[in-house]
C-alpha cells in the first residue's frame, strides 16, 4: 500500500480521519474519545474454527466496522485490536493475530454507533463482498449480515473517506 498522509475532515464537532498504519506507529494518533471506526487489513488465506465450525478465509483485503463507546474510547479499543496475542473476546480477535494492518478510519465524537451505516455503505463499492456472514454483527440492531467486508483489491483511502463523509452528512441531515 502506498504511503499516504492522514486525510482529515471536520463535520461540526466531529472529526473524521483516515490514518495509514506504518511503523513506527504512534498510539497518540488515535484519540481517546468515543466513536466509530473501520480497521483495514490484509490476510493470507487461513482456516478459522469458531464454535466448532471450520471456515476458510480467503487471502485478500478486509475491513472491520466497529464502535468504541465505552470509557476507553477509540484508542483503547483499537490498540487492543492491533495487539496480536490476546484473549479472544470479539469475533475480530480470531483474525487480528494474522493480520497485516493497513489503515484506520475514525469517526471521533459520534453519538451512538455508526458501524452499521459504514458496513452498508462499503458494501456498495465494486468487488466488495461478505466473506463470513454474521461476523461481528451478532448483536447488530440493524440486522446487518456482517461487519467484516472483503475486497480482492486494496482499499482506496481517499475514495472511502469521501464516500463515508457523504454517507454521514446525508444521514445526519435526515435526523
From TrEMBL:
It comes from Candidatus Methylacidiphilum infernorum. Pfam families: DUF123 (PF01986). InterPro entries: DUF123. CDD domains: GIY-YIG_COG1833 (cd10441). This is GIY-YIG nuclease family protein.
